[in-house]
Amino acid sequence: MRPFCKKRLEQARLATLELRDWLLENTELEIQHISFSGSKGFHIIAHDPDRSAFAEPDPVVREEAIRKQRKELLNRVIEAGHPVDPVVTADTRRIIRVPGTLHGSTGWQCTIMQEDWIENPVAEWIDSIPRHSLAVKIPVRPPISLPSIAWPKFAKKPSKKQLEQGPEYTSLEVSSHVSGTKDRSAIVVWLPQKWGDIKQAVENAQAIFDSIDIGPVAYLSDGQRALAIIPRAIPREFLLSRLPRVGLDQFAHDLRRFDHAWVRITGRMTEDEWIGEVEPITVLGYEASERCTHPWSAPHLELCSRLGLPIREGDGDIAGGPEASMRIAIRN
User: Which residues contact 226 (CB under 8 A, 6 or more apart)?
Assistant: First the structure.
């Protein structure tokens, strides 16, 4: 299960454990051992007591008979819902990585596991696996991978006419407060300019939100900066304890001072034209959403939908009323 990380390896461990138990209950195979591949999975090594196919003297016929047996077993395994590698499993000429050798991509050693390891979480035994001194470190979760999309460019500098019109503008703002609750807020925040261009800012933000198990995140842009909206009903104290440490100081300041934040969600209307209209980019962080324990914010789910980024809701409670608080604001 890709990529190489503890989370995916734990998923592979659980799948391997289920497959081992299924093989013991549904076949005559004798499990010899289970090996950690040195990368993203495990190998179950078993002895088949039925050696009749090997009695065939013709090597071509013999191989075809063995391949047929493996294919039949593979089909049963797949039909039972086990996530095996169908290419490797059915290939009679595939060389299984030898225990004690290093995996070329990771530098970790293919290792025969102790009998109880497969029944225990990866975190409890992974440090016991030998590896090369230059082996890659195994992260807890997959690295953030942003989709290949047309990222907005920085908007052009305001024209001379725009500069002459002065800094005053009108825009529509939304409250981060989850209407109908006492102390819960969604995250609605313009990402700091110091985080770089729009793509860099989104990448940085996504790593932060993923690390604190909050998601999904709807990203929009006005051509200059990225706007992040997380439609979750999160206790203010939770946000105040975490957001200042990750660089979202202004949003945390507004929460602390006003119990919520008013955030611009449109472009700026000057005397006769819109500047920097807000456009949707994408929604990221559905993996973090699966770990997120906070209820959904009904008003901010509706907001995301209206802004062109409907959220794929998962399990969990929904808090708040149907509409987010909005206002028209004039600012300098």
Answer: 190, 191, 198, 201, 202, 205, 219, 220, 281
